């Protein structure tokens, strides 16, 4: 954890105990997509994206790390998530981020989204499937801000019935207008003057906090 985040966490106290609300649930998988033994057999992942035999490796800005993702909008969006985690929660280390994989063996349908390169897991050993309450309250403020900023295009595994707090996925199908719209917005931040987007965001700004809480309540309902 970087020093700035640690200071925020240690200073949080009980004030933030109620800061986190539930977000959107995981996407429903195609019927009978997982064979006995946990092998995903469908041609598309649970979020509707095509399964890939291979994926492009992308560098995560500022971290020196890389991750394999589906090319295009999905990569733009998930790289933004990884950058914000690196800048605002903790510095990414070797092996912290995993994306596309080819093994079809999964434990939960939402893990099939790794097969299409449309999901990442950040520190899966620290935040394994089934475990909860792995993040400090102020770290959750950042996660909620990311989800609200991306307007439902990304879902977090901490909100799923079987949680996996390391998991972030594209929650909408390919071609959905919100996916393209959010990707274009992020691309604008990345090429702009540097006062927006990852590295320039204050998740603790009062207006952003209000927006994130409202978004969490709305999606939970």
State the main characteristics:
two-stranded antiparallel ribbon, 221 residues
Structure report:
- This protein has 5 helices and 8 strands; from the N terminus they run H-E-E-E-E-H-E-E-H-E-E-H-H.
- The chain is α+β, with helices and mostly antiparallel strands.
- The strands form 3 sheets. The chain has a 4-stranded antiparallel β-sheet with strand order 5-6-8-7, with helices on one face. A two-stranded antiparallel sheet has the order 1-2.
- The longest helix is centred in the middle third of the chain and has 16 residues, at 73-88.
- The radius of gyration is 17 Å and the shape is globular.
- The protein starts with a helix and ends with a helix.
Query: What is the share of helical residues?
Result: 25-40%
> Could you report the average pLDDT, rounded to the nearest whole number?
87
User: Counting H and I runs of at least 4 residues, what is the number of helices?
Assistant: 5
Strand tally is: 8
Distance between the termini: 32 Å
Strand order of the largest sheet: 5-6-8-7
Oligomer category: single chain
Radius of gyration: 17 Å
Order of helices and strands: HEEEEHEEHEEHH
Q: Spans with pLDDT under 50 lasting ≥5 residues?
A: 1-29
SS-based class: alpha+beta
What would the principal axes of the Cα set say about the shape?
globular
Q: Profile the largest sheet.
A: 4 strands, antiparallel
Please report which band the strand proportion falls in: under 5%, 5-15%, 15-25%, 25-35%, 35-45% or over 45%: 5-15%
Task: Set out the fold topology.
Layout: H1 3-10, E1 34-35, E2 39-40, E3 56-60, E4 65-69, H2 73-88, E5 97-98, E6 119-122, H3 137-149, E7 154-156, E8 167-170, H4 177-191, H5 206-220
Antiparallel strand pairs: 1-2, 3-4, 5-6, 6-8, 7-8
Helix pairs in contact: 2-3, 2-4, 3-5
């Amino acid at each position: 954890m970087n020093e700035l985040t640690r200071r925020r966490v240690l200073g949080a106290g009980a004030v933030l105990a109620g800061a986190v609300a539930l977000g959107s649930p995981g996407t429903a998988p195609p019927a009978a997509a997982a064979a006995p033994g946990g092998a995903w057999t469908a041609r598309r992942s649970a979020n509707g994206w095509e399964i890939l035999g291979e994926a492009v490796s992308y560098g995560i800005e500022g971290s020196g790390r890389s991750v394999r993702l589906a090319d295009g909008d999905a990569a733009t969006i998930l790289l933004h998530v990884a950058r914000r985690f690196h800048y605002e929660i903790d510095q990414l280390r070797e092996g912290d981020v995993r994306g596309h994989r080819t093994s079809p063996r999964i434990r939960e349908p939402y893990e099939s989204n790794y097969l299409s390169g449309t999901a990442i897991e950040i520190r899966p050993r620290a935040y394994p499937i089934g475990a909860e309450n792995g993040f400090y309250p102020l770290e959750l403020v950042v996660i909620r801000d990311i989800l609200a900023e991306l307007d439902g295009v990304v879902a977090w595994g901490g909100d799923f019935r079987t949680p996996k707090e390391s998991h972030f996925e594209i929650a909408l199908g390919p071609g959905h207008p919100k996916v393209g719209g959010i990707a274009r917005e992020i691309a604008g931040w990345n090429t702009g003057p540097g006062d927006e987007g990852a590295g320039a965001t204050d998740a603790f700004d009062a207006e952003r906090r209000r927006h994130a809480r409202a978004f969490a309540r709305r999606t939970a309902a």
